[in-house]
Amino acid sequence: MENSIYFTQVKTYLQQLNVDEQEDVIRFYQEYAADAQLSGERLMSELGTPKQLARRILVDYSLRLEEDDIHNKPAHENTRQERQNWIKQEIYLISIVLEGLLTSIVWVPAMLLILVCLFATVGVATIVIVALIYYLLTGLFQIIGGLAVLPSNWATGLYQGGIGLIIVGLQFVAWPIGVTIIRTVFRALMRFVKYIGRRFSHKGKEVTHHA
Known about the structure:
Number of helices: 8
Structural class: mainly alpha
Oligomer: single chain
Number of strands: 0
Order of helices and strands: HHHHHHHH
Largest sheet: none
Helix content: over 70%
């Protein structure tokens, strides 16, 4: 494959980047190929197929972009909108890494492992949220039940209502703990995804740290 055709194909897989970023990346690899006198099969052997190279570039770019955002973000900023944007960015990173791993059969086991961890994370989050909602509703029903029997049996009503108040009160402690558990598990997942992503994007480490 001629180098011009190769890099034209690489560019078609870089639509997530803007035009200037695409040109910078393509120019970097063209210069690298020229300096190393790579062409044809040697070029494919060194950099992979156009799709594989493009996916490694996108993974590397997404990882470095996120690191820049973390370093440039003031420590005190933690608004709801920023948290939502962070979650969207992390989910996007997971999708980019998975798409990249799909381009090579060698990385399919790593992709499957990420999927298993992702489903486990969703499972943990679901269990925690369902449990918290269940106990919250249980406490509310206990209070309502206690109020309903209070006129006929004040002792039972007070006891049942008191249990309900205790359960509802515990929610002020349980929900922050639950959120912390979910956040911790999700961050552990993202550390693993980023580790795999770096290993994948740094294949041919000397040429993946482009400007």
